[in-house]
């Protein structure tokens, strides 16, 4: 079985390859094709993978190419993990937004819109090529902003593109852990958009255990989301939000912390990764070790500013590795081998969430089998959550329309309608600022 990874020179590719190395079952991936625009990054990552594979007799063969069409031909699965504009682009997304006093996170608020505007045209081109060159391939989209990008691709690939994220899984696992439940035996009632969802229940043996958590302040304050959002706010909500909702519920504090930080997340990662790829040019560098140390530092500092404003302290040891490669592998296995399972995924809504139309990509528990991902029907969201979901989906639709038409005024509308952008004038200046720094937005006229 052939797996093609787009963004194959990306820093997190060894996580995927590590997960593939654990899979010895029949029907596993035997050939990995890495595609990237940058040959230097490809050779850096290839070195790490070679060290990972050392000693494994059934390690998947790895090849690398900068030719996209060649990479796609004959693929059974395509993982799309690209970063249009690189980490420099991410740092610029943050800087331009923060200068206007609004959030520049890569998936939330103004930063997410800017990143979406330059990523959607590239993702659409990929989707069209897959449809033409590898019509039987399944596409698993990792590229952020994952919900929006998956929706853009689904217009060309239908249900054969599925978006993934590890944050709902991590959230479910943490809640199960504090409740003393086995995450594998629990049904997690989670729904929303990517990075905008809520856990409303956790059912074990037919009983909802979440009220027990919400009723116990000590337990509630003992894990990441309890520390981040505070016990009182979680009890008011009666649900546990995805960690990315911290940017909404504590927006002012998050913006201030990002403005005051020595480096924004994107700028930090830009420097960190530049060091990693530079080091890989030294033939004597221990590739796997350098990669792993860099990874550990990245994970330990994830959402550090948010945790700092909340006084949440260091990350819990058990939360450090997100595990999105595990979600991707579980999804691929379920489809390729009909290993039926349940996963929280980004798929077209159909009739799961009644406030959105059938084609809206949402994040929802799905039953997965050889026919793909089937979203389950969920209870309606409370009004406050439905309001946010509808507002942000409307913004995503404006981003898709702007990418489609190249219309600058539609791009302004996307920014202006976002709940975290507080003025149409700010939206206009954001479009100006972003088009100045991003060559990938030159299409906006
Ligand atoms: C979480 C999110 C991902 C994001 C990742 C890394 O797992 O769900 O969407 O890519 O964190 O974040 P970072 O800030 O390290 O790039
Ligand atoms: Mn994510």
From TrEMBL:
Segments forming domain Glycosyl hydrolase family 4 C-terminal: 190-421
A Pfam cross-reference name: Glyco_hydro_4C
Cofactor: NAD(+)
Keyword NAD found: yes
Protein keywords: Glycosidase, Hydrolase, Manganese, Metal-binding, NAD
Keyword Metal-binding found: yes
InterPro entries: GlycHydrolase_4_CS, Glyco_hydro_4, Glyco_hydro_4_C, Lactate_DH/Glyco_Ohase_4_C, NAD(P)-bd_dom_sf
Annotated CDD domains: GH4_P_beta_glucosidase (cd05296)
Details of cofactor binding: Binds 1 NAD(+) per subunit.
The name this protein goes by in its record: 6-phospho-beta-glucosidase
Species annotation: Streptomyces violaceus (Streptomyces venezuelae)
């Amino acid at each position: 079985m052939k797996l093609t990874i787009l963004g194959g020179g990306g820093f997190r590719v060894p996580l995927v390859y590590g997960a593939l190395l654990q899979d010895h079952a029949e029907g596993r991936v035997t050939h990995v094709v890495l595609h990237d625009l940058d040959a230097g990054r490809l050779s850096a990552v290839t070195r790490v993978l070679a060290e990972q594979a050392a000693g494994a007799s059934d390690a998947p063969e790895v090849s690398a190419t900068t030719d996209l069409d060649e990479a796609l031909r004959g693929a059974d699965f395509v993982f799309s993990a690209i970063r249009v504009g690189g980490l420099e682009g991410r740092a610029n997304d943050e800087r331009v937004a923060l200068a206007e006093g609004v959030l520049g996170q890569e998936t939330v608020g103004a930063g997410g819109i800017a990143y979406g505007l330059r990523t959607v045209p590239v993702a659409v081109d990929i989707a069209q090529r897959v449809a033409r060159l590898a019509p039987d391939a399944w596409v698993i989209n990792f590229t952020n902003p994952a919900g929006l990008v998956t929706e853009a691709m689904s217009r060309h690939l239908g249900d054969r593109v599925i978006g993934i994220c590890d944050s709902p899984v991590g959230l479910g696992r943490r809640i199960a852990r504090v409740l003393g439940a086995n995450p594998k035996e629990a049904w997690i009632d989670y729904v929303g958009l990517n990075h905008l969802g809520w856990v409303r229940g956790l059912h074990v043996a037919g009983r909802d255990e979440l009220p027990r958590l919400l009723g116990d302040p000590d337990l509630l304050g003992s894990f990441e989301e309890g520390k981040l959002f505070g016990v009182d706010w979680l009890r008011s909500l009666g649900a546990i939000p995805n960690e990315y909702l911290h940017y909404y519920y504590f927006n002012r504090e998050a913006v201030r912390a990002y403005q005051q930080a020595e480096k924004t997340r994107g700028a930090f990662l830009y420097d960190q990764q530049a060091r990693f790829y530079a080091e890989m040019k030294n033939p004597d560098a221990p590739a796997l070790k350098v990669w792993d140390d860099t990874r550990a530092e990245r994970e330990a500092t994830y959402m550090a500013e948010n945790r700092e404003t909340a006084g949440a302290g260091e990350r819990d040891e058990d939360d450090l590795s997100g595990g999105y490669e595990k979600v991707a592998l579980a999804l691929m296995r379920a489809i390729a081998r009909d290993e039926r399972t349940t996963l929280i995924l980004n798929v077209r809504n159909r009739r799961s969430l009644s406030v959105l139309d059938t084609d809206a990509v949402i994040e929802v528990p799905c039953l997965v089998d050889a026919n793909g991902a089937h979203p389950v029907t969920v209870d309606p969201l409370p009004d406050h959550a439905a309001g946010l979901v509808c507002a942000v989906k409307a913004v995503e639709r404006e981003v898709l329309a702007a990418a489609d038409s190249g219309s600058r005024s539609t791009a302004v509308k996307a920014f202006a309608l976002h709940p975290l952008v507080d003025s149409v004038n700010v939206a206009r200046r954001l479009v100006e600022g972003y088009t100045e720094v991003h060559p990938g937005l030159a299409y906006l006229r």
